[in-house]
C-alpha cells in the first residue's frame, strides 16, 4: 500500500489528534510500526522509482540537472521515464512465478517505452500521471486511466472528480480492483505482488460520497478515512480468504505531507519540520506499518532506519530471490528487523535532485545544504514550512554547510530546531562519523543519465494506446523540446 | 497522577517519535484516551488550584492584576495562596470518609495558612514550591520538603539533585511513598484519594541513576521513562492488591511542555503551537488518560472537551458527593463520558492571568487576544514558540482581537496556522456561537481577590515548621512587600 503524500502525523497510531484511522491503527497493533522510515526523495516520482528499483533516484535516473538541488517529477510533458536498463521489482518477481499488478498511480513516465506492463507488471488499472485537471484537451489533455495496455477513459471525463465538493469514487474503484485481484490470485493459487498506489490524499484531494463530511479534519480527513476503511477491507479480505499468513503487507507513503496544500488539501507531519519538497524530516519521514499475521509479533515497534527502497530488497527476500548483483542496490532486507527485532546499522541519505542535502546516522542528522524554497517562490505564497521558521535552517537561499554541517539530535530534537554547538565534542564525533559514511557512499556512486531534464508538449497523453476504440484520440502539437523548469 | 509540564506529544500513545512510554501506552490501551483535554491555565500554580477547587483561577484567586494578561504562580516570595474560602477536593472527600494524601508539589502557597493539611489533606510528602536551586540560604533559602505538618529536609541539602548529571532519586522516593500509602489504605479498607504530583519533568529535570542515559530523548526522556515506569508500578500494585476495579486513576499534566527549556529540559507538544505560558494549544492541551479496569471499556478514545477542573467534579461523583452549591464550579462530571461514551457540549476558556484570551467550542477556537511574550523578553532569548512563527498569531505585543477574533478550526488545523477568512459564512456562524457562550460565562463570573500580586522576601521558606528539630531554621530578612513582577 503506497500512499501519495500522506504525512508521518496523519494516523492515530502516529499521534494525529483526531484519531480517525481505526483500521490502520489496528494494522499497527497487529503488526510492526516503523517510526524512523523514510522516502527516497521529498517528491513523488523519484520516490516511486526508488521503491521499484531499490535504488536512489540519482542511480536510476529520476532526477534533474537543470538546476542545483531541484526536485523533479513526471508531469505530462516529461520526455523521460524509467530507463530500460533498470530492473524493477515486478520484473524480478516474475522469475519466481509472481503475478504483478499495479493499481493507481504509476508516475514512472507515460510514453510507451515506460508502460508498466513493459517493466514487469502483468496488470494495471490506474493512471500514469497525477490526477490534476480538468484540462481543455487542447492546451493539455486530460490524464488517461489505463486498464492494462490500453486507456479506458480519462479523468474528469469518464472518471469524475468534483473539485467543488471533493467527491470521487476512485478509491472505491481501486479498492474493488484490489479485492478482485486478490480473490483471483487466491483462487488460482498464484503468488502475487500488488502495488496499491492510491492518490486520494494528493491534491486535488477526493473522497467517495459516503465519506464526505465524516472527518473532523475536513476533506483531507475524509480521504484518509476512506483509505483507512479500504485498507481494513483488504486486510479482512486476506483473512477471510485464509491467506493472511502468506501475505506480507506494507503501508507507507511517497513523501511527507504537502503543507503547501494544508489545511484543506494537505496532511500532517506531526512534530517534524516542514513538508514535501524539503529534506527536513517533514519532507521525508513517513508513516510505515508492516503486517504479516503469524510471523510479525503483534504490537512491535521498530526504530530501524528504513527506506522505501528496502521494500524492494525485502520483497525479493520474501520471494526467495537475490537482489541483482550487477548494480548497486540501496535497499536492505528488513526481514531480520521485522521477524527477529534486529537493528541494522545504516545511514539515510536525503537527496534533493542531484544534491546530497543531509545524512542521518543513528540519531544524528547532518545538513550539508539547506533550502526550503526560493524567496521568489516564497513571495508568491508558496511555503513548504508554513508557521515554521528556524533561523539558519529553513533558508530561502540554497545555503552550503559542507565545511561545517548543521547537526541535529533527532531524539532530543525531532523538530530540527536546535542545532548542536559546532564546538561540542558531541558535534565533532558525530560529524566525523557521518563524513566517513559519505565518503564510502560516494566511492561507489555512479549517477545515471538524468531522466527529468527535458519537457515537450508533444509527448503529453494526446493519443494513448486504445484511444481509437474510445474515440478519445487528440491531436498532438508539434514537438518543441525544452529544459523543464523545476523551481524547487 | 498530575505531571508537571509534560506536553501533549510526550507519550507514545500521543505520537512521540521515540515511543518510550510502554506503561502509559498500556494504561491508555486498557482505559480511555482523552485527546481534547486542557489545563486551566498555561502555568503551574493556577492550574493546580483549579484542579483542586474545580474552579477557574479567576474565581479561586490564583491570578494577578499586576499587569494585563500576565501569568503568575507561587515562587518563594509570594505572599498569597489558596484562600480559606475555597473548598478543596480533599476537604469534601473527607465527608465521605476518604483519607487524602498529596505526594510531591503543592504549589498553592507555602505560608502556614496555606498548608495542605489545613485544606483537607491528611498526609503530605513533598515540597510547597518548585525544586529550583540550589540557593545560598542567605538571599534565598533552599526549598523545604515536608512530611505532613513539618519539614523533613531541604532540596539540594537533604534531597539531592545533581544539576550536572541530572541525577536525583526523588521520583523513586515519591513512588515508594505512593505504594506504601496505597498498601496501608488497602490493609485498613479505607477509601483514599492520592494526589501524586511529581515534577521530574519540570526544569531542572532529573531522573534516578538507573534511568539516566536510557532514553533517545536525553535527560528529559530519562525523566519521562522513570515516570512511565513508576505509573506502571502503581497500576500493577493496585492490581496485585485486588483494588484496581475500585480505584479510578487519571493521568494528566498542569500545562503544556515548556519549549523554552527544550530540547534538553523540555518536552513536546506534538503538532500544536507554542508551549507553556501561552494560550495556544501547545500551552494548555494535555495528555490525559482515565483508567478503571472493569468499568472503562478498554481502548476507548474520547473527543470530549475536558479540563483538569473536571477531575474535581468527577471525583466527587465517584465518592457519591454533590459539588458545593454555594459557588460556581467550572468542572463537569466526566463519568457519563467515561462510562457511557457520551459527549457533553461545553466550551473551553483559555485564560492568561486576568484576561480571557481564547475560547474553544466544538472544533472552533476563537482568539480574542494573542501574545506569546514581549519583544523585550524575546530579545533576551526567551521564546515560548521556538521555530514557530505564525504571522498575526504568535504576536510579541498584546494584540486585541475582541471585535474580530482570530478563528481556527482545530480539526483541519490543529497547529493554529491558518485563520479562517473573516468574510466566510463559517466564520460568522462560529464566532456568533462563541460570543453567546462568552456572554453566558461572564454573566456569572465573579473574580476573586487576586492572590498573586504581592511578593515579600520575608515570607520565603526561612523557618518552616519543624526546622528547629533539624537545626535548619534560617533568619528571615525584614518584611518588604512589593508588587510581584510577572513579565509574561
UniProtKB/TrEMBL annotation, chains A, B:
GO terms for molecular function: arylsulfatase activity; metal ion binding; N-acetylgalactosamine-6-sulfatase activity. Keywords: Calcium, Disulfide bond, Glycoprotein, Hydrolase, Lysosome, Metal-binding, Signal. Binds 1 Ca(2+) ion per subunit. It is found in: Lysosome. InterPro entries: Alkaline_phosphatase_core_sf, GALNS, Sulfatase, Sulfatase_CS, Sulfatase_N. The active site is at 44 (nucleophile), 107. It catalyses: Hydrolysis of the 6-sulfate groups of the N-acetyl-D-galactosamine 6-sulfate units of chondroitin sulfate and of the D-galactose 6-sulfate units of keratan sulfate. Its EC number is 3.1.6.4. Its main location: other. Belongs to the sulfatase family. This is N-acetylgalactosamine-6-sulfatase. The lineage of its organism: Eukaryota, Metazoa, Chordata, Craniata, Vertebrata.
Amino acid at each position: 500500500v503506497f500512499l501519495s503524500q500522506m504525512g508521518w502525523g496523519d494516523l492515530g497510531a502516529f499521534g494525529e489528534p483526531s484519531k480517525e484511522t481505526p483500521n490502520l491503527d489496528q494494522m499497527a497493533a497487529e503488526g510492526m510500526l516503523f517510526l524512523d522510515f523514510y522516502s527516497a526523495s521529498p517528491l513523488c516520482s523519484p520516490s516511486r522509482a526508488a521503491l521499484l528499483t531499490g535504488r536512489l533516484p540519482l542511480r536510476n535516473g529520476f532526477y534533474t540537472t537543470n538546476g542545483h538541488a531541484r526536485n523533479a517529477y513526471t508531469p505530462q510533458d516529461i520526455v523521460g521515464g524509467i530507463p530500460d536498463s533498470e530492473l524493477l521489482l515486478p520484473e524480478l518477481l516474475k522469475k519466481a512465478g509472481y503475478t504483478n499488478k499495479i493499481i493507481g498511480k504509476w508516475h514512472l513516465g507515460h510514453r510507451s517505452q515506460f508502460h508498466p506492463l513493459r517493466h514487469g507488471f502483468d496488470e494495471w488499472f490506474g493512471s500514469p500521471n497525477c490526477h490534476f485537471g480538468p484540462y481543455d484537451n487542447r492546451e493539455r489533455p486530460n490524464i488517461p486511466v489505463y486498464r492494462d495496455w490500453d486507456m479506458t477513459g480519462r479523468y474528469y471525463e469518464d472518471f469524475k472528480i468534483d473539485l467543488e465538493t471533493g467527491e470521487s469514487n476512485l478509491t472505491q474503484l481501486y479498492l474493488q480492483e484490489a479485492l478482485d485481484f486478490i480473490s483471483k490470485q487466491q483462487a488460482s493459487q498464484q503468488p502475487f505482488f500488488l502495488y496499491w498506489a492510491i492518490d486520494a490524499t494528493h491534491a486535488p484531494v477526493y473522497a467517495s460520497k459516503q465519506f464526505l463530511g465524516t472527518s473532523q479534519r475536513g476533506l483531507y480527513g475524509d480521504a484518509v478515512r476512506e483509505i483507512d476503511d479500504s485498507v481494513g477491507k483488504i486486510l479482512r479480505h486476506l483473512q477471510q480468504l485464509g491467506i493472511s499468513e502468506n501475505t506480507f503487507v506494507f503501508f507507507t507513503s511517497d513523501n511527507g505531507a504537502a503543507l503547501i496544500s494544508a489545511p484543506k488539501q494537505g496532511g500532517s507531519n506531526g512534530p517534524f519540520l516542514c513538508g514535501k519538497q524539503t529534506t527536513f524530516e517533514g519532507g521525508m519521514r513517513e508513516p510505515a506499518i508492516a503486517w504479516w499475521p503469524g510471523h510479525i509479533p503483534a504490537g512491535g515497534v521498530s526504530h530501524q532506519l528504513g527506506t522505501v527502497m528496502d521494500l524492494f530488497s525485502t520483497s525479493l527476500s520474501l520471494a526467495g530471490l537475490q537482489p541483482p548483483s550487477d548494480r548497486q542496490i540501496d535497499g536492505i532486507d528488513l526481514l531480520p528487523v521485522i521477524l527477529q527485532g534486529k537493528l541494522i546499522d545504516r545511514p539515510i541519505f536525503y537527496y534533493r535532485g542531484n544534491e546530497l542535502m543531509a545524512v542521518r546516522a543513528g540519531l544524528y542528522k547532518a545538513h550539508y545544504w539547506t533550502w526550503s524554497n526560493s524567496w521568489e517562490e516564497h513571495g508568491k505564497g508558496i511555503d513548504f514550512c508554513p508557521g515554521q521558521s528556524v533561523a539558519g535552517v529553513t533558508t530561502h537561499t540554497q545555503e552550503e554547510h559542507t565545511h561545517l554541517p548543521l547537526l541535529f539530535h533527532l531524539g532530543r530534537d525531532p523538530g530540527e530546531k536546535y542545532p548542536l554547538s559546532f564546538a561540542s565534542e558531541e558535534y565533532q564525533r558525530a560529524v566525523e562519523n557521518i563524513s566517513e559514511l559519505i565518503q564510502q557512499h560516494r566511492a561507489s556512486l555512479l549517477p545515471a543519465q538524468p531522466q527529468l531534464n527535458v519537457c515537450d508538449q508533444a509527448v503529453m497523453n494526446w493519443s494513448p494506446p486504445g484511444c481509437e476504440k474510445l474515440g478519445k484520440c487528440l491531436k498532438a502539437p508539434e514537438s518543441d523540446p525544452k529544459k523543464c523548469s523545476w523551481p524547487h
